[in-house]
Amino acid sequence: MADPNSNGGALVVEFLNMQPVTDWKKLGSDLADLHLFNSILGRKKLRLESWIGKPPSSQLPENFESTINKNIKLNISDDIIQNVDHVEEFGFHSATCCGKIPQNNEWHDNWIEFYARNRLKQQIDLIVENYSNRKIVEYWSELQLKIDKFFIDIIDNIQPALLHGDLWSGNVTQIVNDGPVIFDPSSFYGHSEYELSISKLFGGFSPLFYDEYFSKIPQQKGFKR
């Protein structure tokens, strides 16, 4: 029994009977849908606003369509289109944690700027603070001048996507007699390929996962670079 007079705490959650992932194709498909939702929502909002005679407040890039499979259709109700905001910047409305490290999710309108300042530089600063590694500061000074070159061919295609943020194999599972799920997120709106870099860093994901994901969101130029 819990002691109500103690200084401890308790978290009561629903029990889910979990097992290792077997339906990797479903996981890849669902993750792609998650990543596509915000961009497709923005496109549908533009259409709805034009139908009711209002000038669109924002415009998706003309070449956005080339980054997704044309057969993808997400069923988004008019109620959601009207009441859910399309996110046009990179970041999140609050800090989230990757492991025990709080992430700087301050908003930026440019992915390269967000990635450099809020992800890479934050890690550099932690390394310097915790390990007094000054050499990495020199490397960082050089890298800052080259970051944009990694995105030079695709920068106009990068749209904010809602990410899990820490998608390694320890944060995915499957519910018995149901489908795969992801948990323990460090969410923010970012470049969808950021998500896949983490999944590949630690391994453990079936090729079926990537095949299904890329059938909806094809690899962009320079993905393997």
How would you summarize what this structure contains?
The protein is mainly α. It has 6 helices and 7 strands, in the order βααββααββββαα.
Query: What's the structural domain tally?
Result: 1
Low-confidence stretches: none
The largest pleated sheet is described as:
3 strands, antiparallel
As a whole number of angstroms, the C-alpha radius of gyration is: 20 Å
Summarize the amount of helix as a percent range.
25-40%
Derived from helix and strand composition plus strand pairing, the structural class reads mainly alpha
Share in β-strands: 5-15%
What CATH architecture would you give? Alpha-Beta Complex
Protein name: protein-ribulosamine 3-kinase
EC number: 2.7.1.172
Keywords: Kinase, Transferase
Catalytic activity: N(6)-D-ribulosyl-L-lysyl-[protein] + ATP = N(6)-(3-O-phospho-D-ribulosyl)-L-lysyl-[protein] + ADP + H(+)
Please explain how this structure is put together:
By secondary structure, the protein is mostly helical. It has one domain (18-216): Aminoglycoside phosphotransferase (APH), C-terminal lobe (Aminoglycoside 3'-phosphotransferase, Chain: A, domain 2). It is built from 6 helices and 7 strands, in the order E-H-H-E-E-H-H-E-E-E-E-H-H. The strands form 3 sheets. Strands 1-5-6 form a 3-stranded antiparallel β-sheet, covered by helices on one side. Strands 2-3 form a two-stranded antiparallel ribbon. Strand 5 and strand 6 form a beta hairpin. Helix 1 (24-51) runs parallel beside helix 6 (207-216). The longest helix is centred in the N-terminal third of the chain and has 28 residues, at 24-51. The protein starts with 17 loop residues before the first strand and ends in a 9-residue tail after the last helix. The model has no long low-confidence stretch (mean pLDDT 89).
